[in-house]
Specification:
This protein has 312 residues and is mainly α. It has one domain. It has 14 helices and no strands. Helix 4 crosses helix 9 and helix 7 packs antiparallel against helix 14. The longest helix is centred in the middle third of the chain and has 32 residues. The chain starts with 15 loop residues before the first helix and ends with a helix. The N terminus and C terminus are likely disordered.
């Protein structure tokens, strides 16, 4: 009697490279989760979106310049690679950051982080539409569930202040879309030119555009009205920009954009906890339920994307 062929088993154990990638993505997610709280504190100290972005980038720019100068000389970059990295950086670290900071002028830190957290869904949808990346049924299911949860959160917020909530939500959704595009295009660039070189080029371009555009419209002393704003900007530049930018770029070299976005599931919970501790923000039971539904839907969709990426 012939023996039946052994059934195939698929190992899902992580390689050391993937483990490091997950750890870096986790570090970047946790640090980025503090950003909303720091920004809201800076606003209370007298800053605004344009000024805070410009100061943050001005502090970060020389750091990236020094790191770039210390990098070992690799293969020379083409003009196309350099321009692509610069444009991707302006999109992700410039446009996306500005829209997010503007949205925080209207929304609480907790709600802003929840809306921004929809970016993994945009990663999946835009990846399918623009790059023919696979998209599964779970992604569609997660999309519907996530936006159902978001609708519950937003309904309560709109009842309090309709105009401000809608304005803030649209701005942060714009930030989520542009950040999703950044994740997709940055993944290819990081693997082509290296994480450190890409981060330095992308952040330097975004910083230069942000600082120059702010200085064209307003004088320097108006950007830094007091020492408290300066302190918040320094903290935001180091822990909300420099360290997480390198961590996220290094993670994208080791794991997919879909897997990286799945790890971001921790972000809303961390931000909500920090906002409750430092800003006194509280979420009602309805908002907490909606947030839990939304996070569950996004994780479901992002895991589907990660599994599809692994099977490619």
């Amino acid at each position: 009697m012939a023996e039946s062929a052994p059934s195939r088993t698929y190992q899902r154990s992580l390689s050391p490279e993937q483990t490091v990638g997950i750890a870096l993505a986790l570090l970047g997610t946790l640090l980025l989760s503090t950003k909303s709280v720091i920004v809201k504190s800076a606003y209370a100290a007298g800053s605004d979106a344009e000024a805070l972005l410009a100061i943050r980038m001005a502090i970060a720019l020389p750091v990236y310049g020094v790191i770039w100068a210390c990098l070992p000389k690799g293969s020379p970059l083409t003009w196309r690679e350099g321009c692509s990295a610069a444009l991707i950086g302006v999109l992700g670290y410039g446009v996306s950051s500005y829209l997010d900071l503007q949205g925080l002028e209207y929304l609480s830190a907790s709600v802003e982080r929840l809306i921004l957290f929809t970016y993994p869904l945009f990663v999946a949808v835009l990846g399918y539409a623009l790059m023919s990346l696979p998209i599964g049924a779970r992604t569609v299911q997660g999309l519907l569930v996530s936006y159902g949860g978001l609708a519950a959160v937003m309904a309560e917020q709109i009842a309090v202040d309709t105009r401000a909530t809608l304005a803030g939500a649209l701005l942060v959704l714009g930030s989520a879309v542009t950040f999703a595009l950044f994740q997709l295009y940055a993944t290819r660039m990081v693997r082509a030119v290296g994480a450190m070189r890409f981060t330095c080029m992308a952040m330097s371009a975004a910083a230069a555009v942000s600082v120059v555009s702010a200085l064209i419209r307003r004088p320097l002393h108006d950007l830094v009205p007091n020492s408290s704003v300066a302190m918040h900007a320094v903290i935001l530049a180091i822990f909300g920009t420099i360290v997480p930018s390198f961590a996220m770029s290094a993670a994208l070299k080791r794991i997919s954009a879909q897997a990286n976005s799945a790890i971001g599931a921790l972000s809303p919970a961390v931000t909500a906890a920090l906002a409750a501790i430092f800003l006194g923000e509280r979420m009602s039971p309805v908002s907490m339920f909606g947030a839990a539904v939304m996070v569950a839907g996004t994780v479901w969709a992002a895991r589907d994307g990660a599994d599809l990426e692994a099977r490619r």
